[in-house]
Each structure stands twice: as C-alpha cells, then as structure tokens.
Amino acid sequence: MITRKQLSRRTLLRGVGASIALPALDAMSPALASLNRVKAKSPVRLAFVYVPNGIILNEWRPAKTGRDFEFTRILKPLEKYRDDLFVLRGLDDRNGNELGDGPGDHARAGASILTGVHPRKTAGADVKGGVSVDQIAAQHFGRETRLPSLELGCEDARTVGNCDSGYSCAYTNSISWRGPTTPMPPEVNPRMAFERLFGVADFSLDEKTRARRAQQRKSILDLVRDDTQQLAKTLGTNDRRKIDEYLTAVREIEKRIQLAEHLDVNPALEKPSGIPLDFSEYARLMYDLMLVGFQADVTRVATFMVGREGSLRVYPEIGVPDPHHPLTHHRNNADWIEKVTKINCLHVQLFADFLGRLQATPDGDGTLLDHAAIVYTSGLADGNRHTHEDLPVLLAGHGDGALKPGSHLALKSGTPMTNLYLTLLDKAGVRTDKLGDSNGRLEPLSELNGV
Amino acid sequence: MGQQRDKWARVQQMIQSGAMPPKGRPRPDDTEVQNVLRALEQALAREEANLKPAPGRVTARRLNRAEYNNTVRDLLGVTLRPADDFPQDDSGYGFDNIGDVLSVSPVLMEKYLAAAERVARVALFGDERLKPTAVRHRPGDRRIDATTTPLTEYDLTGLTLPNALHVTHKFPVTGEYGIRLVMGGTRPGGSEPLRLNAWVDGKSLPEAQLDLDNAATFTPGRQEFTGNIVETRARVEAGERWLAGSIVRMYEGLPPEYNGPNPSKRTRPTPQEFRLPPDIPPERAEEIRRRVAQRRTETAPINEVRVVAIEIAGPYEQPTGPSPASLQQVYVCGHLNGKHAAAACARRIVAALARRAYRRPVKTTEVDKLVGLVTAARQQGDSFEESLCVALQAMLVSPHFLFRLERDPGVVVAGFTPAVRGNDDKRPAGAKPAATTAHLITQHELASRLSYFLWSSMPDDELLRCADAGALRNPSALAAQLRRMLKDLKSRALVENFGGQWLELRKLESLKPDRQRFPAFDEYLRLSMRRETELFIESVVRDDRSLLDFIDAPYTFVNERLAKYYALPDVKGPEFRRVSLVGNERRGGLVTQASVLTVSSYSTRTSPVLRGKWMLENLLNAPPPPPLPDAPTLDESQIGTTRSLRQQLEQHRANPICASCHIRMDALGFSLENYDAIGGWRELDGKLPIDATGTLPDGRAFKGSVELKQILRADRDAFTRCVAEKLLTYALGRGLERYDQPTVKAIAARVAKQDYRFSSLVLEIVNSMPFQQRANAQGERRS
Questions:
Q1: B199 and B106, same structural domain?
Q2: Residues A440 and A313 in one domain
Q3: Domain housing B77
Q4: CA-to-CA dists, residue B613 to B550, B653, B694, angstroms
Q5: B173 shares its domain with B265
Q6: What ipTM was predicted for this assembly?
Q7: pTM for the whole thing?
Q8: How many CB pairs under 8 A join A and B?
Q9: CA of A8 to nearest chain B CA: how many angstroms apart?
C-alpha cells in the first residue's frame, strides 16, 4: 500500500522555479510508478483553469481563424505555444443566464461553468448544482492515483451568507462539484496543498547533510530505545504499559525511516511555508503544485480557480490598486477597461509560464504538455454585461496525441461548453454520454484535430 | 454495606427525591419514609467514616500539549509552542493531564521527533527563517443597522463598534509583520479620508488613512471600500495575539449635510452622467433607470464601512541567532560576545541540560551516552553547536523528558509516614491504613509535582535547588515555595488549564452563537468574556482570596466592551481593570459571568437544564446521571411564542424518573433565565416575561441570581468539597477513588477553617497523603 507517510519521506522536493528540469519522480516510488508502467502510454492529465469576472474581449479575440491567427494583446504571452493550443470561439454556458431567477450572474457562472447545470437559487444550506467534468474524470481515474483530484484556488472561500444576489457562497467558491449538493472548495494554502499531495515532508537540505541527519536521527533513536528497554524492566504494570506504548511508537518510526532511506530523490519543490505575499508568486506556486502532482502521478485531474467569481483582488504591483470586480463594470470608462485588460494579461502570462514548465518537464515518452489537456476559461465573457455566450476559451496540450492543436477555431455558435468537456473525457478514455446541458460531442470531432 | 455502597446511595437518592416508589403505586407515609432515610444516612455515614485513605498510584504522565510547550520554553527559552501541532490530548475526569488516558501513538512519536529537531535548532541557532506569507482571518461580520444620523457620544477608537473586527492570531516567530485591514461597505462621497487603526493586544499601531473619493465604485455618490486593503507594519513577539482593526472617529469627516462633528471640507464631486450599457432590452432599461434615480435621491448611510477581514503578512524581518534566553539556558560555561568556551565544557553543558530536562539528578552513564553523541558528530565534522544539537534532540525525545516518571524506592517503606504538618488525616484510632504499602516520593518527584500542578511546567532552578537540599518537606520552606510559585506569572497556567477545564471555558473558543439571534456576539466579546473570567480566577489565585468569591464577589474585571455589555459606567478603552460591583444585583461571581452563561447555553437559546447541570457538576459536585435514552426533547419552535421553555420543561418533569434529577437541575437553571444564551441581561424571552423562580427538592424556594447565590453560599461545604476534588484530580493527574474521599473531606474541612483562602486549598492538597506518597507497585492490579 502506498501510504502518505512513506511518500513524505521520499519527497524532498525543492527549488521552485530554480530548476525547470524536474526529475522523473516515478523513480522515487516503485509502488506509484508501477501503475504507470502497466499502461503502455502516459496517462492524460486534465486540468481546468478558471479566471473570474470576464475578459476584455476586444483585446482577446483574434480576427482570423485557422492556423495563422494573430496573437492579440491579452493572448500575446502564449505566442511561443502556438502549436500547443487552440483558441476557441462559439462556446456557451447558457445555464449561467438568469432563466427567470433574476440577478446573480457571477454565482451562476461559477457554479455552472464545469457542470452545465443551472444552480438552484438559494442562500441557505440547500445548495444544488450539478456534477462537474473534473469530478467525472476523477471518479474514473481515482482508483489509479492516490488523490482522485486536486482543487486549487488563489482566493479564500467566503463561508457565510450570500455571495451574489441571494446565491449561497458555495456557488462562487467552488467550480468543482462532486455531486449536485457537494461542492469541492479549493485549497488556497500552498502548504496544505503540498501536504495533501505529498504528506508532511521534511525541509530541504543538501544531500550530504540530509544523510548525516538521517544517521544522527538513527543514533538518537538507538540510544533512546536502549535506555527505554532498561527503564521498562524497572517499572510497575501501569507505568510499563505507557512506556511499552512509547517503545512501540519508537520502533514504528525506526521502520518508517528505514523504508524511506533508499527512496530519496533530488528535491524539485520546496515545501511552501504558506501563502506568498506576491500574487504572481502565489499563482505560480499553485501551478507548480498542480505540475508536481501530475508529474508524480499523485493525481491526474485538477481544477484551479485563479480567482473566485466576483473577485475583489487588487493588483497594485501592475498598477491596479482598485478591486477587480467593480472595475469590470466599467461602463466604457477607458481607464477602467485598461486596468481590467492589465489583469487579464497578467493571468494569461501566468498561464503561459505554466505551459512552459509543463513543456520542460519530461514525462514518459515526451513532456507533461504532450500528455495534458488543459482548459482555460473565464466564467463570463463580458464582465461588464454579464454575458455567458461565446466565452473566451483556450485548450492547451496534446492530450497524449489525441489533440492536434495550433489553431483558432470558430465552433458553431451556441455550442454548449459541456460538448467540449464530453469530447475531452472521450480523449482521456472516460466514456460519458451526457454532462449537464451537453447535446453531443464537438462535431465533427476532427474540429479539434486542427484545420 | 461494602461493595453495595453505591447502590444504597442511589436508593437514598431515589427515595429522597420522591421518584420512588413510582407514581400511582402504594406509598408509605412520611414518617416511615423519613425513618428509612435516616437509617440509610447513618449506615452510609458509618461506612464513610470507616473508609481507609490511601495514596493511590499515579500512572506515569506524559507531558500534555500545554506542559510540553511550557517545558521547552522554561528549559531552553524557546517560545515556539511546537505542541500546538500535536494531536489533541485525550482527557479523563474532566482534565487532560491524566496519566492513564494520555498515550503515545506513532503519529505523536513522529511529531516528537520533528519537534525535538525544531526546538533544538531554534535554541542553538535561532528561529527558523520563514518566508513572508499571508494569513487571512475572516470571522464573519456583525450586524450593522444602517443609519444616516451621526452619533456624538460614541467610542472614538471604534473598537467596540460593530464596524471593527477582532481576531486572534498565532505569530510563529518574533519579527516584523504587516497587519492588513481588508475593508468592506460604503461611505458618502465627499467624506474625508477614512481613519483606521490596527491594534495588537489592545495597543494601537500608528493611524492609517484611506481615501477613496475618486476610486472605482458600484454606486455613484458613494465611496466604495469593498476589497480595499490598508497595511500597517509592526514588530510582534512570537505567540498568540489579539488583533483588531477599527475605524477611528467614525462620525467625523462626513459631508456637512449630515451635521456630524468635524464635517468634511471637501467639495462634492459632480455626479457622473448615467449612461445605459448597450444591448439592454427596453423593459430592463426602464427598471435600471428607475433604480439609479432612486439611489440618487437616497441619503447614503454613514456607518456601513467596516473591517471585514484581517490579514497578517510576514515576517518581513526576523532577528537572527539564538535568543539571549536560550544562550543563558544552554551555555552554562558562559557565552560572552558571541564567543563561548563551550567546546571545552561539552560535558558540563550536557549534564546541566539533562538534569533540567529530566528534572532530577542524572547518572554518569546517562551523561556519558549523551556526550557520546556529541563526540560522534564532532568526529564526522559537525560544528560544536551542530553536535550539541544531536544530544539535545536525544534528551527531548527521551521518555525521561516526555514522561513524568516516578520510581519505586529499592526498599519498600511499610505503612504511611505522615509527611509534614497537615498530613495527619483524621483516621479513627486504631484503624489501620489500607492493606498495601506506599512510599514517600522523592524530593525531585515532589518538585515536579509542584511545578506541573501550579505552572504546568518543569521545576525552576530554585525548586530544583530546594529538592537537592532535601528542603521540600520542611513546612516553612514549602510554604514559602508555594507562595512564591503562586505569585509567579507562570501560575497563569493554573488559571488557563485548571480554570479552563473546570469551568469548561475552553468551549468558548469553538462556540458559535447564532448570528441572527445574537448579533452582538463577535470576537471582541468572546475574547473579553474569556479574559474576564481568567482575570477573576487569577485574582483569587494571586491575591489569595476566598474560594467563596467564586460564588459571589463584589468585583470583577472588564474592558469597555464588557462594561457596555454589563451596563457598567465609566470604563473606556480595551484594557481590563478591576471594577466594583457593590450595589449591582445583576453581576458578581462566576455564575453571572458572560463566559460561564455562554458555555452553558445552546447556540440558539438558553437551557436551564444545561445551566443546572453545569452548576451541579462544577460547583456542587453532584453530577446528574445521563438522561434516559427515550427522554422526550423540547419543541424549540414554541419557545418564547406560545409556550415558554418553563412550561415545556414542567411537562417533561411530569415523568417521575426524569423529575428525580430535573427538579434540582431545572430549579437552579431557571434562576439564571434573566441572562440570555450569550450572557446578556434580558427581561423577556421572546414575547414572554422571564420567570426566574425555582424550588429545590428540599423545599427552599428562590428567585433570580441573587437568591441563587445565597443558596450556593449556604451549600458552601458541598462547593468547597467540589473545588477540592477537582483541584486534587488535576494536581495528581488521576481520577479519584473511594479511598480518596476521606482526604477530600479533610482538605475541605481545613480550608473552611482558614477562611477558604485559595492558598490554603493548595497547601492542603500539597500536604495531603496522595500528593506526598505513592503506593508501591506490588499493590497494582494486573491489567
């Protein structure tokens, strides 16, 4: 059995960003790796990246479709990965619309984007949405990896009352839903996310020091064990029971340390101390956690909420000291539009950096980017007007050869987002006939094989 | 009677309460009942008098979390509190320092190993370097009733207003931190910049300002604060701190038309022209236009802006190197100007540390082994400090450190040796002690018992010196030590750990009173009510006051928040102070303190049953048995509307089995009905007037807290025994047995003769047989 503890001892990871070449972690854990080896091919990794409050669409949408489309101001950082991604037009999340429920587009956008289900309007505990695409994949892969799925976010969850015009905060807090009444709130603390992935890991040290510390720890335990055995002989029954308990624990720890000894790897990601102060560093770290989770095959499915819908984050470091959400209701104020564009650009830049690191990470017969399929979407198209149609969507990665990216595709207007998801599930080997409001696969399928 | 004693006691209780014989069955006449009761009472008393006291045998006690934290602090000057990350300690008999219950799991062992490494490294090399990170606290807003009328008489600091936010945060290391106030709400456009204060432990940081008069806003004509953040830097010492963010002089700087004090001198901005977004369907457009027009005519509320979250960023700068306190504790050979003659005296350092870590003299062979670790590390090329670190870690995971071990002497002492004055428990002449043998614990074991009892920590140097000199059984030396220990700030541990568990105050941390029903409840109130009771107990301990002050006292401790809550005049600011309650009928003594009233309530309503049970358990030492499995529950929806809680409970008591316990519980609890579920004063429960009367089974009728306290004072013997029993359990770290009853009784009787002074209770416990002695292993039951 692969236990969390064993893994923690093996996974001395460090140097985030310092070395991009991450070692193949499967060497560290035969138990985990064996799952890979039985499969001839590397597994497909699915990720869904979500940005809040819509996008300044004029600065996003390329004019030309097909292979030689141009990279607009917001998409510019992605130019290097022209052959690794699709820009998609024509996808709708129509269940984000009011459909008779009145205001609350932000809440509905978050709750419906991965489910295709119109959430029940309630501020109480009786929330009801749908099952999200990542969780369907998680149910499928969950048997093969230690974590069925990883939910990450960069914004703390609000837990009380209503978050948008009479909608429970559960709707804006989580895009991932295990069941209609079970949202999966994202982990926002990198340290906790790390521990979820790898257990309570040791801090980083050079190899020689680590070896010596391990040796010293062993002599400490030797000494303590010998002393305690002597002691135990001189005690009465009840005291002895306590000391025996202690001895058993010591022996158990010695065993664990022994097991961990020959499973050490070169560090690749240091255990985070908490939430970095700088937003870019924070987001990069969360992307890194997703990356090492994929790399070590601890999980194959992840969602990442760069912000939650209605986000009020301020970005003073790029000249935007005002909260995000009010700015998006710009009423055509040029200054505000510019500020929102800056935020959109920053988010895409961080995504591009992530793609770069995926591409630099060897995985099986290629790189992680070769084996990944990553959807990047905003919950709303135009944040000023709360539109849910023709969403700005990217699809990155090659899906282990199942996708042939490299173009700007205009899909039939009014295609549900969920049709894209069904198609991706197909490519990842997960058969599902319906997801939320889906009404088919993306037809023809070859659409996603480039033009 | 013997083994059957408990059964007979129960028979007595059932007859006394009238529960037996059951209703509808033939009932003996009153004289007959009284005769039976008298006979039972005499038989029970005889049995009690013949009970033979015994010292008992405490099982080796593992340090619990509080003790571990305090011990590494006192041993090495390390304020890390590593045990906060250990698994929760189990508790037994109401306390979490019970040897039999505290266990060691592999998970805990792993934590011990990691903590030893951290603690040793911090002691020798200084705090670990932490990267600056951010932690956000968002406990939830308090309700604010919007107003457009400025106040003139209000808390200028803003701390007690619902616009302020209060949280507790544990700072991992000493260093410079940014305290960020995350704002919410709006203020009228044209107001002066908002003035904000961050507070650490009630001390204000420099004032900050936030000017949003020209910033993005959803609502034209208002300053929109939501999402804005103001940061103030401060150096903060490691440990748990109370943080607050408040709005200073909230009703100043508003536009002149509000007629507030010090109005704004700004010119009003011209309202922005309203343009409809494109593509809006005509039917919506009309509605939007109407809404905007309406907003324009509204007067913006002035008290809506508030602190919604506090974020702690940092540490930005940390001191480097070991702390002076650590240096002093470790380098006994001296450590001058950063250079020390340490390498030469490794053995002295290790021996001194081991003696303190194990809290007893150490054998040469023990020191040899530890020095061996240092030498081995040196040979591998580690520095002196690194090598010393290995030995220190070994001490910190040793059972001699982690457990309070008490050893049987080689030679068994037969019978009991009266230890010191006060240990001559009144045994009937000729009565032999229980048929087992015991011994006096050693001076060093006694020193540890004393220090863990009063300080939840290791003995300090003076106590160890006394033990070395064999002076701890000298009555005057011991009394002097006890006085010194109770005066020491470390005795706050007794308040936190004993008080916190005895009165169930620890529950206060996790309670979540219903926000709808109790909008006044916020973190500030929670912190303040906890502090009141802590200071109150502390004053009884430190100033050596009467135990009966717990029942009723003409004083308490409040800050402005609590003073307002209790309607006490003339208290300004966040600092606590002692105030007189003379002439105040509503407050005084533990049972009227908001903390106690809150922990004995449900989150939505008061419960006379819970409060009655709380008093029976914690003040009168008469815990009621658990309710019958099929006991009917109350219909919550009816409370305060159609049928009062009292009516419902009275119906419940129609069942004689239930009545036997409830009649007492409910009577006690109902007398506190004038206090709501968070301890606030009230005259009505919902729509119905409060009826705070009660009648005890023995016929004593009383009304309200004042008469309740008279009843409790009348029962002071039971109360004193109760406190004695609780404190003895805590002091020994074991559950009390039948054979401890004579000891408890004797302690209580002596305390009564000494004006119930707290120090007399401590002294009597310390001098008692079970504290001074330990049964030998032979008598132990095989398990």
A1: no
A2: yes
A3: 61-126+323-404
A4: 17, 15, 15
A5: yes
A6: 0.84
A7: 0.77
A8: 154
A9: 12
